[in-house]
């Protein structure tokens, strides 16, 4: 078990090396002069040159890469030209917002998607099932940013039930930083007002993010439930008098979920990289928004850093899923 | 049910043709697949004729009409007009061309690169396979949208650059798919037989293996079309990609954001167009998968 | 007068498929009393498993459709019960064992949990099963059920039973898994056990142990058993009675000694002669010529006639009815009485 985790963690090293090389290669292709852009329109040549020296951007690309990797060893992800702050510090500030959003979306998707998949499988080929299947394809086809816009228009602008964007109103003092998740931190601080405020801000973006994974999880769960229901052990359970409800909710569900888990893991990584658009719509101060702003101003260090962090989280999420898989499916535990 | 006595040479049609006919029959039995095909047909129609048929062609080229800004939906402007007084319907109709062609370009380039990488990796095996697949896995690890954004920013704006940027983040799925199929096909008896008969590796790859990989690739392409269109629109929405005045759905939607909620109609047509196009391609792709690649159904 | 435990009377079952309607059970008559082990033998597709599934009403309808007959469990017609009522009988009155022990246990749950759930479901109907009053709390009942599960495992011959309750199915060998399944089938103390090819997937040595276990359980639990198999050796070794099925009909039935010692139906005879004996020489293995008829358009009259070496024109005229040839030994053949003479030729 420990051996397995260690081996998987070792695999992260080539991922880090490969990711940084690819992102550096892209940075090299940049046509504009990011230093000039960062120095501002009124900067003199000398100022630009000194800025370049300050950030090590005057050196050849491989030297820059070497310096970057050297910095990486002690957690230095370089410096953003745009915010003039260390990228690591920026990411530390923005990552929790993205994670909170992704977790909330995943929570909705799993909590709604898995029971829906189970129910539609039991009701398969009847009209509620057909409706759900069409709805699922519709949900997957819905552009998240358009859905976000519609949600904003409806619930924030017309009905005015929920806030338009951001994580907290300016007037609310954010709770002390513990996890970076405002909902959890405000609970730790015992600040109910901040908790409800942050929950209200989280609602719309999380729903906008959750729809597509929800539909996919539902479809996956439906398919695996149908498969499991044809297994011999389900027949045995019926033959030995277990109530249908118990067979479905206990026996079938457990087996079907383990097949669905892989999808959840994949989707987690996909969502991490896919927050960009929703964060833009809801002005959510997360990694996606950070990366977008950096890309638009051709500030590559943050982009490399964000890609690296998300890539690592993606690999890490799959490791967690593999471990969870072992918990749910005892057969794979020892292999 | 009618009996099908094979009495003419035609009834002994090639199994491939028979299979196609059967597949087409099953496809046409599925109402959703047919709906998808119909939507896709409409979308392709507008891709070709959208600009020509637009009620206000002058707006498509960038013409403005400041006198009629922000007119709500009416008979003259079914989806209203925008901040420049342009007819939203005309822009969206013309925008089909950019979105669908870009989506198609992405899927095409992505599948060609991915097929080549996957076929070479699966066929060569050994260290070539190892290197190519590590590269594939690595690319899969980088969040696609951020990678595409970074490449697009690096290449500069413009239609071609945007398509290339997204395609460069799109190929790994195909590489994995094709490699898997090639590895499986290598073990098939007919490939062993061809090798025993002295066929060159190139001939085996192109004559015996790739034709059998075509169906899953087509299925994946049709399923990917919708998401490619979404990604194109996403880049447009963020402001990387095609620049105005070229009408593009994502860009149109992004501009309309500034005029919410008062001029909400400027967002509806581009958003619904995106949704419908993607919906159509997804329905079609689902249907195609069911008939062409039943084992992938899960 | 005591009622028989299980009495199947003139059961007809039709299956709808894409190709048409198949008459897969065609007037099955079978009576099983407590203490009896009935072997149900025949080739694949003859309807023996369907008969077993029909008793538990596990055959989905549609595509199956019962056109006539009744299945009486101590006088109550099971075909008239709803699925909810049936569910309460399953596990409690009727236990079942299936062929493949590797696929019939849920791989994701400890076997203890699976046994406990069956016991609790049975206790819903009869609290005596776990020896715990129905008013007892959930926890108490679970504990009682768990204790019973341990006892049952020990009883079916699993060493170190209590500890093994916490194991998962993949930690057991095939024979042990079949024992677990038998324990599961017996934990609700059923009156009737239907075992569908319980030993087919097992090694020959394990097979004998499992059959012995079933045999002993009949005495311990005062059950009746329907043992479905295609193996006449298993029948001879285990059963008290046997019914031979062919294409949806029972062609010969009676006590094992009578039927196997003196088979009168040509099909039974053919089956018997297909068994290799000590005298069979290498290369002489005999099968039965021809194959099971198409049940959508069955041959007229006796369904075995096309393969029967003694068939006459009269055989295709009508479906033969069972003729008694001795103490509860009957065969459905119009030439039963000539058979001895025919065989001597």
Give your account of this protein's structure.
The complex is a heterotrimer of chains A (335), B (298) and C (345). With 335 residues, chain A is mainly α. Chain A is built from 14 helices and no strands. Chain A is globular, with a radius of gyration of 24 Å. The N and C termini of chain A lie close together (9 Å). In chain B, helix 6 runs antiparallel to helix 7. The longest helix of chain B has 38 residues. The N terminus of chain B is likely disordered. Chain C is 32% helix and 22% strand. Chain C is built from 11 helices and 12 strands. Chain C has an 8-stranded mixed β-sheet, with helices on both faces. Chains in contact: A-B, A-C. At the A-C interface, helix 11 and helix 12 of A face helix 2, helix 3 and helix 6 of C. Chain C: Its main location: membrane. Chain C: One of its GO terms (biological process) is transmembrane transport. Chain C: It is found in: Cell inner membrane. Chain C: Belongs to the ABC transporter superfamily.
């Amino acid at each position: 078990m420990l051996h397995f985790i260690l081996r998987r963690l070792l695999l992260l090293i080539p991922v880090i090396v490969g990711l940084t090389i690819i992102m550096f290669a892209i940075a090299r292709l940049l046509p504009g002069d990011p230093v000039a852009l960062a120095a501002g329109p009124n900067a003199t040549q000398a100022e630009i040159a000194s800025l370049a020296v300050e950030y090590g951007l005057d050196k050849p690309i491989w030297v820059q890469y070497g310096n970057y990797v050297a910095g990486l060893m002690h957690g230095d992800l370089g410096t953003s030209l745009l915010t003039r702050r260390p990228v690591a510090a920026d990411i530390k500030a923005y990552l929790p917002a993205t994670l909170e959003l992704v977790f909330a979306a995943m929570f909705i998707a799993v909590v709604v998607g898995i029971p829906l998949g189970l129910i539609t499988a039991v009701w398969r080929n009847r009209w509620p099932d057909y409706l759900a299947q069409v709805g699922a394809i519709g949900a997957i086809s819905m552009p998240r940013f358009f859905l976000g816009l519609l949600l904003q228009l409806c619930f924030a602008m017309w009905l005015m039930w929920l806030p338009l964007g951001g994580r907290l109103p300016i007037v609310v003092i954010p709770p002390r930083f513990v996890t970076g998740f405002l909902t959890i931190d405000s609970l730790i601080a015992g600040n109910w007002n901040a908790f409800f405020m942050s929950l209200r801000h989280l609602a719309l973006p999380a729903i906008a993010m959750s729809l597509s994974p929800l539909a996919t999880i539902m479809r996956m769960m439906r398919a695996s439930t149908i498969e499991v229901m044809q297994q011999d052990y389900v027949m045995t359970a019926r033959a030995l008098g277990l109530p249908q409800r118990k067979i479905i909710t206990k026996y079938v569900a457990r087996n079907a979920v383990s097949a669905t888990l892989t999808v959840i893991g994949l989707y987690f990584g996909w969502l991490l990289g896919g927050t960009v658009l929703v964060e833009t719509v809801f002005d959510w101060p997360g990694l996606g928004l950070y990366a977008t702003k950096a890309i638009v101003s051709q500030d590559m260090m943050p982009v490399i850093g964000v890609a690296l962090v998300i890539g690592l989280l993606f690999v890490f999420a799959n490791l967690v899923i593999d471990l969870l898989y072992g918990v749910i499916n005892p057969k794979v535990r020892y292999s | 049910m009618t009996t099908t006595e094979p009495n003419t040479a035609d009834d002994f049609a090639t199994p491939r043709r028979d299979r196609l006919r059967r597949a087409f029959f099953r496809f046409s039995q599925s109402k959703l697949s047919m709906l998808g095909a119909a939507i896709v047909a409409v979308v392709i129609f507008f891709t070709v004729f959208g600009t020509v048929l637009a009620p206000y062609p002058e707006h498509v080229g960038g013409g403005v009409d400041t006198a009629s800004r922000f007119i709500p939906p009416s008979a003259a402007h079914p989806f209203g007009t925008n901040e420049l007084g342009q007819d939203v319907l005309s822009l969206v109709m013309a925008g089909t061309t950019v979105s669908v062609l870009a989506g198609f370009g992405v899927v095409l380039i992505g599948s060609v690169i991915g097929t080549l990488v996957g076929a070479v990796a699966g066929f060569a095996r050994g260290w070539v396979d190892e290197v190519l697949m590590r590269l594939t896995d690595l690319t899969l690890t980088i969040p696609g949208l951020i990678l595409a954004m970074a490449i697009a920013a690096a290449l500069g704006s413009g239609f071609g650059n945007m398509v290339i940027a997204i395609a460069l983040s799109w190929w790994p799925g195909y590489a994995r798919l094709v490699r898997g199929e090639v590895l499986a096909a290598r073990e098939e008896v007919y490939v062993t037989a061809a090798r025993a008969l002295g066929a060159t590796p190139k001939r085996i790859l192109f004559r015996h293996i790739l034709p059998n990989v075509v169906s899953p690739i087509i299925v994946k392409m049709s399923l990917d079309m919708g998401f490619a269109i979404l990604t194109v629109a996403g880049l447009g929405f963020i402001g990387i990609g095609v620049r105005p005045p070229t009408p593009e759905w994502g860009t149109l939607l992004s501009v309309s954001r500034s005029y919410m909620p008062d001029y909400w109609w400027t967002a509806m047509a581009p958003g619904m167009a995106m949704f419908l196009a993607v919906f159509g391609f997804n329905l079609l792709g689902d249907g195609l998968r069911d008939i062409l690649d039943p084992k992938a159904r899960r | 007068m005591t009622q028989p435990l299980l009495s199947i009377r003139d059961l007809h079952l039709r299956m709808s498929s894409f190709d048409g309607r198949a008459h897969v059970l065609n007037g099955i008559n079978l009576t099983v009393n407590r203490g009896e082990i009935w072997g149900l033998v025949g080739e694949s597709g003859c309807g023996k498993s369907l008969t077993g599934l029909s008793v538990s009403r596990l055959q989905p309808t549609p595509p199956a459709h019962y056109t006539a007959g009744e299945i009486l469990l101590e006088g109550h017609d099971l075909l008239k019960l709803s699925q909810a009522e049936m569910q309460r009988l399953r596990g409690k009155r009727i236990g079942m064992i299936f062929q493949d022990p590797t696929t019939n246990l849920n791989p994701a749950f400890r076997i203890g949990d699976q046994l406990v759930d069956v016991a609790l479901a049975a206790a819903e109907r009869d609290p005596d099963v776990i020896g715990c009053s129905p008013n007892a709390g959930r926890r108490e009942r679970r504990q009682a059920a768990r204790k019973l599960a341990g006892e049952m495992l020990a009883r079916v011959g699993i060493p170190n039973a209590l500890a093994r309750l916490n194991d998962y199915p993949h930690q057991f060998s095939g024979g042990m898994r079949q024992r677990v399944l038998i324990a599961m089938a017996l934990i609700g103390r059923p009156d009737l056990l239907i075992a569908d090819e319980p030993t087919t997937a097992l090694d020959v040595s394990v097979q004998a142990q499992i059959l012995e276990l079933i045999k002993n359980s009949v005495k311990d639990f005062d059950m009746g058993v329907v043992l479905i198999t295609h193996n006449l050796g298993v029948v001879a070794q285990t059963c008290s009675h046997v019914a031979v099925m062919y294409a949806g009909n029972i062609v010969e039935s009676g006590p094992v000694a009578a039927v196997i010692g003196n088979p009168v139906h040509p099909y039974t005879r053919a089956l018997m002669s297909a068994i290799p004996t000590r005298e069979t020489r290498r290369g002489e293995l005999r099968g039965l010529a021809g194959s099971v008829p198409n049940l959508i358009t069955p041959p007229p009259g006796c369904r075995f006639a096309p393969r029967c070496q003694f068939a006459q024109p009269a055989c295709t005229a009508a479906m033969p009815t069972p003729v008694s040839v001795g103490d509860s030994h009957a065969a459905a053949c119009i030439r039963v009485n000539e058979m001895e003479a025919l065989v001597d030729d």
